[in-house]
Amino acid sequence: xxxxxxxxxxxxxxxxxxxxxxxxxxxxxxxxxxxxxxxxxxxxxxxxxxxxxxxxxxxxxxxxxxxxxxxxxxxxxxxxxxxxxxxxxxxxxxxxxxxxxxxxxxxxxxxxxxxxxxxxxxxxx
Length: 125
Fold this sequence. Notes:
Elements (H helix, E strand, L loop, with lengths): L8 H12 L4 E3 H6 L8 H13 L3 E6 L2 E6 L3 H17 L3 H11 L4 H14 L2
Antiparallel strand pairs: 1-3, 2-3
Helix pairs in contact: 1-3
C-alpha cells in the first residue's frame, strides 16, 4: 500500500516504533515499550493505532485474545511520499530546487556534494 496523506508528529512516533519491530508488527505493549521515558499511556497509543488503522497505515487482527498491529506502509514508502509532498509543496515539484535548497542551507562539504552527485549518477543507470 502507498501512503496517501501526511501523519501528525504523534502518529509518526507510533509508526516509527511499529517499523522497528520484526515484520513491522506487534502487540500494543511492544509498541509502547519502544517509546522513550516517560512513556505515553497504553490507552494513548491504542487511540493513535485506531486512527492509523482508519487512515490505512495499520491493520489489526486478533492473536488469541490480544490485538496485533501491523504496518501496511513501510518507512521507505512513507519517506518517499513525504519527500514528494514536500517537493511539490515547497519547491514546485522540482527535485533540483529541493537539492539546491539543502545544498545551500546545510552548507555541504565538497565530499558530501560528490557523494550526492555519485548517487544521482548511479540512480540514472
